[in-house]
Design a protein that fits this description.
Elements (H helix, E strand, L loop, with lengths): L13 H13 L6 E8 L5 E12 L5 E9 L1 H17 L6 E3 L5 E4 L1 H7 L23
Antiparallel strand pairs: 1-2, 2-3, 4-5
């Protein structure tokens, strides 16, 4: 019994699976093709996967297709967390981010609007309430 790989690809990603595959086959040995899709586990649960395709003609003249993929779910979750954090960062409230040594690393637009300090011109002082003197990140 043979199973086709597209049997594991989530229905909404079938075209995204086929397009880079066909492109790899059209350009044998020239360039890798990659894509990110959702695959189905045996229990029907979906997970994110990063695919890498390379189609080439072997020395004996036979075609060879290499498909490698890896679970990219943790990366996708991290990307989503970063998008949420970026959205939350740009609120109406002034926010500054410091490192463990209280050196200012980043400020949002509300901070700049309130204080007048731009991203490249943080004052060489501590955030309010800091007892030690630290340098400001460049």
């Amino acid at each position: 019994m043979y199973l086709r790989i597209d049997a594991f690809v989530a229905r909404q990603d079938l075209e995204r699976w086929r397009s880079p595959l066909l492109s790899a086959m059209k350009h044998a040995g020239v360039a890798r093709q990659t894509c990110d899709l959702r695959l189905k586990r045996a229990d029907g649960a979906l997970f994110h996967a990063h695919f890498d395709y390379l189609y080439r003609i072997a020395e004996d003249g036979h075609p060879a297709l290499r498909i490698a993929f890896a679970d990219s779910t943790p990366l996708k979750l991290t990307e989503e967390d970063l998008r949420i954090a970026a959205t939350a960062f740009e609120t109406q409230e002034a926010i500054l981010v410091t490192n463990a040594g209280t050196v200012i690393q980043r400020v949002n637009r509300a901070f700049i609007g309130l204080t007048g300090y731009t991203g490249s011109a943080y004052p060489v002082t501590q955030p309010p309430g800091q007892e030690r003197n630290h340098a400001i990140a460049e």
